[in-house]
Amino acid sequence: MSRFLKHELRFTSALILAFLLTAAGPLAGQGTRGDTEASNYWWALTVGAGSTRFTCDLCTPERDAGPWADLAIGADASEAVRVGVEGGFWTHRDGGTREWVYRAGVVAHVYPREESGLHLIGGGGWTAYRAEDIRYDSGRITVGLGWDFPLSPGWLVGNTVTLDAASFGSIKNERVTVDRDVGVSVLRLGVFIKRR
């Protein structure tokens, strides 16, 4: 088994474990948006499709499409702002090579109108690309929109469109730098289930 597959299995296992631990211990007083006793804590599991593109002197302009998944856990900073930490991955097979983009960082959901499910998404963190011996690491920002609505007491479902943008990283082949000041963008469309 390749070291990249082992790394992916460890990363996926950690996400699943975090999901199960969170789901196994529901928080007291959870409710839907607008409930007076809604929990201050939340978690969300998001899955969907995304496309990734590199921007550099040696890069091709095409976007590669593939599935992605994300797990976020957080708390309410106010009635209109929810903050948390998140981690996830995107993958794509290019011929015989499996490509991965990993992401981890902080996220904020801002609800301009308290009773509306429409919210702005912003955040920042780390992005990493792996494909056999090729690697890339950089800081990134995230912007997007989401919309959610109550499914049942304490549960919400919804969808998101987000853009991750990373810049100024270097592509490396093992320890050799291939290109500098490389940008990576990942456009993601997803559906989520959220527990509050």
Keywords:
196 residues, mainly beta, elongated, disordered N terminus
Global outline: elongated
Report the total helices: 1
Order of helices and strands: HEEEEEEEE
Low-confidence segments: 1-9, 14-37
Provide the structure class. Answer: mainly beta
Radius of gyration: 18 Å
Strand order of the largest sheet: 1-2-3-4-5-6-7-8
Biggest sheet record: 8 strands, antiparallel, barrel
The number of E-state strands comes to 8
Mean pLDDT: 83
> What separation lies between the terminal Cα atoms?
39 Å
Strand content: over 45%
Describe the overall structure:
The chain contains 1 helix and 8 strands; from the N terminus they run αββββββββ. By secondary structure, the chain is mainly beta. The chain has an 8-stranded antiparallel β-barrel with strand order 1-2-3-4-5-6-7-8. Mean pLDDT is 83; it is low at 1-9 and 14-37. It is elongated. It has one helix at 3-24, and strands spanning 41-55, 64-76, 81-94, 97-110, 118-131, 134-152, 155-173, 176-195. A hairpin with a 4-residue loop joins β2 (64-76) and β3 (81-94).
